[in-house]
Amino acid sequence: MIKSIEPVSCETGPEKTEQSESAVVFVGGAFSFSDLTIRIFSDAFPSIRALRVSTQADLHLLIQTRGDPAMVVFEQSFFRQFIDGADSLGRICGRVRMVLAYSDPRIALRVLKARRAAPELKPVCFLPMERNLDTWLAISGLLLRGESYLPPEVFEAIDIPEEDVAPPEIPDQTCGLKSEVSEDRPSALKPLTEREAQILSMVALGKQNKIIAGDLGLSVHTVKLHIHHVIHKLGVNNRTAASAWYHERFLSDDAGPQVLNG
After folding, report:
1. Domain boundaries, the chain
2. Read out DSSP for 149-209?
3. What CATH number belongs to 23-164?
4. Among candidate residues 53, 57, 58, 88, the one with its CA nearest the CA of residue 73
5. How many C-beta neighbours within 10 Å does residue 163 have?
6. What own/partner pairs with CB < 8 Å and gap ≥ 24 does 35-38 have?
7. CA 71 to CA 68: how far, in whole Å?
8. 196, 230 in Cβ contact below 8 A?
9. How do residues 150-172 score in pLDDT, each as one tens digit?
10. In the CATH scheme, what architecture does the domain 187-250 have?
11. Stretch 60-68: mean pLDDT, rounded?
12. Local structure of 37: helix, strand or coil
C-alpha cells in the first residue's frame, strides 16, 4: 500500500527526524514518473517510501530535511548534470546511490563514458525505461539491493568511438515503460505498444479496469498504467476521449465490436 506521493516545495518541508526511513526519490516530471508509476513501485516495494520531486533544489531540500534516501532516480533530462566537471548531483546526493532513468540509450552511454574517464566522480547506475513492467521492477529491485546493472544496449556500445555514436536527442521527459510493438498492426495504432492497443480496444468496449485485469491476467494498477500511457500517446484528455478515438477508427456499425489479440 502506498504511503505517500508528495512533491516537495522549496518553501516548506517537514523537520528532519533522527531516524530517516528508507526512501527512493524520483526526480523529474509526471510524464517521466507518473503518479501511477510511483504507486506501482510502492506496491512492489512496500517497505520503501516513494517520493517524487521536480527539481534539484527540491531534492536538496528533501535531503536536508528528511535525511539521505536509499536511492535517487533522475529522469534523463538531467544527463548533463551527470557529466559536468563539478559533479553537482554527486555533491547533493552524498553517499546516496544515484540512478539515471533513460529512454535513449545514447544518453546512458554518454554518461557512462564521461564518468569512467573521471574516476573521482561518484558511480552512476542505470534504469532503462523502455522495458515491460515486470522487467522494470526486477531491475529496480536489483538496484535497491545494492547490485549493479549495466543494460545490454549500453554495454555492447561501450567501446564504440564517440564520433561513431549519433548524438542523443534533447530529452523530452516522456520516457515510460513499454512492451514490444508489433509491426503488423494498423498504422493508427503504431504509437502504442501491443498491450496498450489491446487494452484500449477493451476500454472502447466499455470494460472496467477490474474486468480487463482479470481477462489479461494483470493487476488493476498495471491496467491503469497502460491506460495512462495510451491517453498521453494519443494526445487526448481522458479515458472517454481515448475510447471515442478508437470507436471512430475501428468500431464502425458494420464491423461490430472487436478486441485486439495480444
Report:
1. 23-164, 187-250
2. ---HHHHTTTTS-GGGSPPPPPP-S---------TTS-GGGTTS-HHHHHHHHHHHTT--H
3. 3.40.50.2300
4. 53
5. 5
6. 35/5, 36/221, 36/224, 36/225, 36/228, 37/176, 37/177, 37/225, 38/2, 38/5
7. 8
8. yes
9. 888 888 777 666 554 555 554 44
10. Orthogonal Bundle (1.10)
11. 89
12. helix
Q: Could you identify the residue written with the cell 509491426?
A: 183
Contact (CB, 8 A) for 230 and 177: no
The secondary structure of 226-257 as a DSSP string is: HHHHHHHHHT-SSHHHHHHHHHHHH--TTT--
The pLDDT tens digits for 178-231 are 433 344 446 677 778 888 888 998 998 889 999 998 888 888 888 888 888 888
Considering Cα of 108, then 37, then 177, then 233, what sign does the dihedral take?
negative
Residue type, 15: E
CA–CA distance, 200 with 108 (Å, rounded to integer): 32
